[in-house]
Design a protein that fits this description.
131 residues, alpha+beta, 7 strands, 40% strand
């Protein structure tokens, strides 16, 4: 497997951290901006778009802070690798600014496309939040 590059994107979002966390960590929240629908099977999230589906294994979930997934072939896929995608909410203690940090990995020739896709997805999230 080819080495992937780590992508780290930060977005300022004018909404409460708890509200953002709900949108990034629950099936109903994710289906408002990330995909058309989400089902959970055996600790594996099944993301549905138009005519396609993709599975992601839940690796880590920190209440009101972050959620981390790894793309997998299906709910029974046990393959391990170092690649994941993470959505992390933070708030600056001094300014009160709320940030959403996205960490993802992509092949070198797909970094720009992946970045553009996240930018589009986060715009959908902001729109849904009225931010």
């Amino acid at each position: 497997m080819e080495n992937k590059e780590k992508i780290r994107l930060e977005y300022a979002i004018n909404a409460s951290p708890k509200l953002i966390y709900n949108r990034i960590s629950t099936p109903s929240g994710l289906s408002e901006w990330f995909c058309d629908d989400v089902n959970i099977e055996k600790k594996c999230y099944k993301f549905l778009w138009d005519r396609s589906e993709q599975y992601a294994k839940l690796l880590q979930k920190k209440e009101n802070q972050s959620i981390r997934f790894r793309w997998v072939e299906g709910p029974d896929d046990e393959e391990e690798d170092d690649y994941y995608f993470e959505l992390k909410v933070s708030q600056d203690e001094l300014t009160g600014d709320v940030m959403l940090t996205v960490t993802d990995f992509a092949e070198a020739d797909e970094v720009e496309e992946t970045t553009n896709l996240w930018n589009k997805q986060i715009e959908q999230l902001k729109y849904g939040l009225g931010a």
